[in-house]
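Q: Hi! First time asking for a complex rather than a single chain. Here are the components, and I think there are two in total. Is that enough to go on?
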Amino acid sequence: MLEVTGLHVAYGGIQAVRSITFHVNEGEMVALIGANGAGKTSTLKAIARVIDAVGGDVHFCGEDITRIPPHHVIRKGIALVPEGRGVFPRLTVAENLAMGAFLRHDKAEMAADLDKIYGYFPRLKERAAQLAGTLSGGEQQMLAIGRALMSRPKMLLLDEPSMGLAPIMVQKIFEVVRAVAAEGMTTLLIEQNAKLALEVSQRGYVMESGEITLTGESASLLNDPKVRAAYLGE
Amino acid sequence: MDIFFQQVINGLVQGSIYALVALGYTMVYGIMGLINFAHGEVVMIGTLVAIAVTSSLIGAGVPVAVAGLGGLAAALLVCMALGWSLERVAYRPLRGSPRLTPLITAIGMSIILQNLAMIIWGRNYLTFPPLLPKINYEFAGAHFTLVQVAIVLISAAAMSGLVFLVYRTRLGMAMRATAQNPAVASLMGVNINRVIAAAFVVGSALAAVAGVMVGSYYEIAHYQMGFMLGLKAFTAAVLGGIGNLAGAMAGGVLLGLIEALGAGYIGDLSGGFLGSHYQDIFAFIVLIVVLMFKPSGLFGEKTGERA
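A: Yes, that's all I need. Here is the structure of the assembled complex.
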């Protein structure tokens, strides 16, 4: 479904991503793990067109999306939940969710999706009229995921959903991530918490200094001595 | 006490005009962090276009009311096109460049527009044809005219329209989202370029309305009139907290009141040394005081690191 070939990202001469190739199949959850600064976020940003790729290409559902305008990405069915959540702080929770459905006009279906998201995260429903900036970090993460789902995407890109959150919150968020994936959502997950990411995903890629150094079934990566040593703290 | 009410009325009228113009500054600043110093010139172009169209329609025998509406419509069209072009030609190519660059460009556009207006309309003062009958009212010893009433009502209507647009429509939500986080708004499918252009067009429409009001209030217009008006409206926007819509409205009205009361009492305060023609100093005293003690303005949001 998503095919990334020879992707290259650089910031003013600094190579963040060096020609990486990977793919995500339909209905699959794939984890991209690696240390801070390995190039994971840059990879995601280049796929979602937040930044320009220097080289390589990105195909989604067979279509080349490497150079499409940034605001067309969501139209293709890709929703990014950005690092640091990126909620609109002075819009209400309900307005943030409405922004996720910005391009949709199917009112009845949107209402159904909203109910579903409030079902995943009852906290958001309680706080629907509150400004998003007043939410806790975990609630903002819920909102960011809910907002992405409101676009009814074909694929979710999750950038560090566990970052800075209390363990109980991480657990809640990942319950929903699992539930959404179980319904067949294609997902690319980026995490520093490698254990968590490999537990929920089917396949994984390990990134180091902008390159993919290891790939395989998540279960076998979890047992790989190199992964255990470098990312699982053993 | 005798002139107090009178000056409050004068201040409200002038203040509603400042508020409309201040909204244009604050919308553009809120969305892209740019102070569009050419905005005062958009008002001036609005006034001069309205004069040209209204006068020639009246000359052709069209009833005054219809001619006035024709002038307003023409001013709206020209100003909106001008606002759109300013963004497209002058500011969009500079997006992402250091903050000083678009600021200098804005001053440059302001000079260009003044000179353009001078070439088209000449250096002389032009008279604005009276659009409304000269009816006077009296209340608590203060006098006011139909034009003054109309200015306050039309400003209030225009501002209500803007509030509706920004808080109740899809475009308004996209504008607010873009102001808060353009990169994420783009992820949601918002075409940032279109939203920024819309902010310029809407701000310019308000400028056109203000231009017609200024013209019919003072019944006189000039190619340099936008400079001082723009500077004062900018002061009003800063006073209210630039980037904040409610702030621009409150700041505009407040500045109008400060100026009018200041002009009314400056003679008494200075023992007759300064006359009411010193009223302009009040706006700039306000600007200096606000920048010194509360740079985020009355309704201040955290704009410190962006300003």
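A: The beta strands of chain B are 126-127, 136-139, 142-145, 220-221. Let me know if you'd like any chain examined more closely.
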